[in-house]
């Protein structure tokens, strides 16, 4: 097996050389992950823009539908997120015979997750009724979700296969097939939304079919590649098929459920904030959405670095290079904070330009400029917490970090944000800015608690290796 993606560290090198070497490895692992994340984000942008050119109802329906399936996807994706550190750890320990059995249990979890997600999406009508949507928009939303649901199994199986490829350090694989899916989604959207090549115009419902087909093609192509590529001769998906193993599935879920729930906690909190801000009017909501969109885009860099960090630390722990793992876990915060300072500076000094790029409405620009200044400070706290929690996942520590995030977000950030946004209990009413202050405080608490956990965990858990 190729060792270039995840080299074994040389202990005889100086501290500085080892640190820089590990940072280089992270960048090589994280670069393709970043491209894959951006490709997946691009699908949402493409759907939104193209549906918006069909009609306002189609745009609203696709937006609402995406808001409903995305948290579910993130939850189930988190369950499968346990595969990367487990497989990376087996590779580091050179226990290659354990990799395909784990991969197949991940595929079974993906299939089970698909069944649950499809059942929820196809019975979402009570939630649509509770949102008091007009009949036409509700019809498009349900049609979009019904069509999207057909591609859920392919999407989830692709996430399971990503556990194999990322775990082996081959992060360019998911990058390639994510880009392929995006390239397929664009023309299919054009055909299904607007009615081309003899296909009837479906509007927003066509987005669902385009996404399903593009997911299916990308997953099938990835499956064929893994079965035929010379790089995976040691790992035959079909030849190395194994039956469901309840014990292995429990092990994956024991690690994956806290990851999925942690991601769901964060995603749901942003949805709740959007609902809380709705009474403040469309200008405030629009300004908040601009700031959130920019921050989400910038967040792809530390997120990708964090995913690479999880892979690298789990590999090092499996290879019994625990000193290097601990060195990386502590020094990576310097690189992460440097990234945060760069992004924070861009947001602080470029807030006016960013606001103009998003909208020509002066009132919305004013709100977004103010919130982008808070978002600049938010960067440091956000980057710190995602770096720490990613390192802990590399050590297979997910349960306590989940409770830390639950406390920080729902026990500190959201209540404080609501108090600052709508009451005079601490300072005069701040509106949307109050939630950004609350988020920053909550993430700061998370970063401090997770940082303390990361500092102590390797020393107190010497048997963390798989």
Mind explaining what this structure looks like?
This protein is mainly α and 466 residues long. It has 2 domains: 32-244, no CATH class; 258-466, no CATH class. 80% of the residues lie in helices and 0% in strands. It is built from 16 helices and no strands. The chain has helices at residues 15-52, 56-80, 83-92, 99-121, 125-130, 135-149, 152-167, 171-194, 204-228, 246-277, 282-318, 322-349, 351-358, 362-394, 399-422, 432-460. Helix 7 runs antiparallel to helix 8 (171-194). The longest helix is centred in the N-terminal third of the chain and has 38 residues, at 15-52. The two termini are 20 Å apart. 49% of the residues are buried. The model has no long low-confidence stretch (mean pLDDT 85).
Gist?
This protein is an all-alpha fold and 466 residues long.
Tell me, what's the shape?
Answer: globular
End-to-end gap:
20 Å
Assembly state of the chains shown: single chain
Radius of gyration: 22 Å
Task: Indicate how many domains the architecture comprises.
Answer: 2
Tally of helical runs: 16
Total DSSP E strands: 0
% residues in beta strands? under 5%
Report the helical percentage.
over 70%
| Computed structural class | mainly alpha
| Unreliable stretches covering 5 or more consecutive residues | none
Q: What is the H/E order?
A: HHHHHHHHHHHHHHHH
Whole-number average pLDDT?
Answer: 85
Biggest sheet details: none
What key phrases describe this protein's structure?
80% helix; globular; single chain; 2 domains; 466 residues
How is the secondary structure organized here?
Elements: H1 15-52, H2 56-80, H3 83-92, H4 99-121, H5 125-130, H6 135-149, H7 152-167, H8 171-194, H9 204-228, H10 246-277, H11 282-318, H12 322-349, H13 351-358, H14 362-394, H15 399-422, H16 432-460
Helix pairs in contact: 1-2, 1-8, 1-11, 1-12, 2-4, 2-6, 2-7, 2-9, 2-10, 3-4, 3-7, 3-11, 4-7, 6-9, 7-8, 7-9, 8-9, 10-15, 11-12, 11-14, 12-14, 13-14, 14-16, 15-16
């Amino acid at each position: 097996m190729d060792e270039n993606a995840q080299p074994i560290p040389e202990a005889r090198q100086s501290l500085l050389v080892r640190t820089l070497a590990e940072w280089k490895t992270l960048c090589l692992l994280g670069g393709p992950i970043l491209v894959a994340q951006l490709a997946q984000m691009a699908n949402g942008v493409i759907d939104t823009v193209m549906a918006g050119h069909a009609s306002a109802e189609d745009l609203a329906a696709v937006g609402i539908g995406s808001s409903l399936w995305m948290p579910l996807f993130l939850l189930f994706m988190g369950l499968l997120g346990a595969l990367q550190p487990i497989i990376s750890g087996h590779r580091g320990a050179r226990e290659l015979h354990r990799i395909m059995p784990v991969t197949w249990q991940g595929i079974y979890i993906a299939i089970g997750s698909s069944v649950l997600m499809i059942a929820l999406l196809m019975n979402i009508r009570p939630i649509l009724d509770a949102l008091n949507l007009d009949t036409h928009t509700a019809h498009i939303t349900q049609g979009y979700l019904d069509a999207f649901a057909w591609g859920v199994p392919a999407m989830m199986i692709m996430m399971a296969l990503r556990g194999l490829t990322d775990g082996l350090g081959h992060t360019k694989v998911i990058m390639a097939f994510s880009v392929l899916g995006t390239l397929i989604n664009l023309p299919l959207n054009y055909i299904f939304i607007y009615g081309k090549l003899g296909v009837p115009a479906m509007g927003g419902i066509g987005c669902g079919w385009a996404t399903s087909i593009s997911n299916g093609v990308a997953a099938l192509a990835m499956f064929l590649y893994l079965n035929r590529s010379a790089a995976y001769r040691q790992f035959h998906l079909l030849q190395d098929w194994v039956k469901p193993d309840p014990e292995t599935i429990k092990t994956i879920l024991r690690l994956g459920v806290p990851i999925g729930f942690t991601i769901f906690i964060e995603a749901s909190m942003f949805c709740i904030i959007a609902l809380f801000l709705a009474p403040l009017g469309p200008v405030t909501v629009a300004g908040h959405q601009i700031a959130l969109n920019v921050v989400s885009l910038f967040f792809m860099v530390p997120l990708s670095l964090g995913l690479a960090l999880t892979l690298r630390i789990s590999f090092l722990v499996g290879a019994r290079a625990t000193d290097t793992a601990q060195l990386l876990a502590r020094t990576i915060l310097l690189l992460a904070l440097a990234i945060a300072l760069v992004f924070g500076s861009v947001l602080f000094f470029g807030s006016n330009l960013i606001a103009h790029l998003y909208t020509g409405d002066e009132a919305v620009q004013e709100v977004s400029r103010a919130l982008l200044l808070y978002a600049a400070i938010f960067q440091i706290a956000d980057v710190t917490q995602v770096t720490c929690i990613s390192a802990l996942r590399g050590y297979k520590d997910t349960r306590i970090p989940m409770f830390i995030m639950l406390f920080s977000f729902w026990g500190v950030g959201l209540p404080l944000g609501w108090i600052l946004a709508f009451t005079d209990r601490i300072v005069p009413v701040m509106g949307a800015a109050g939630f950004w202050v609350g988020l920053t405080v909550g993430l700061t608490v998370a970063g401090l608690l997770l940082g303390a956990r990361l500092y102590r965990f390797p020393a107190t858990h010497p048997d963390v290796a798989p």
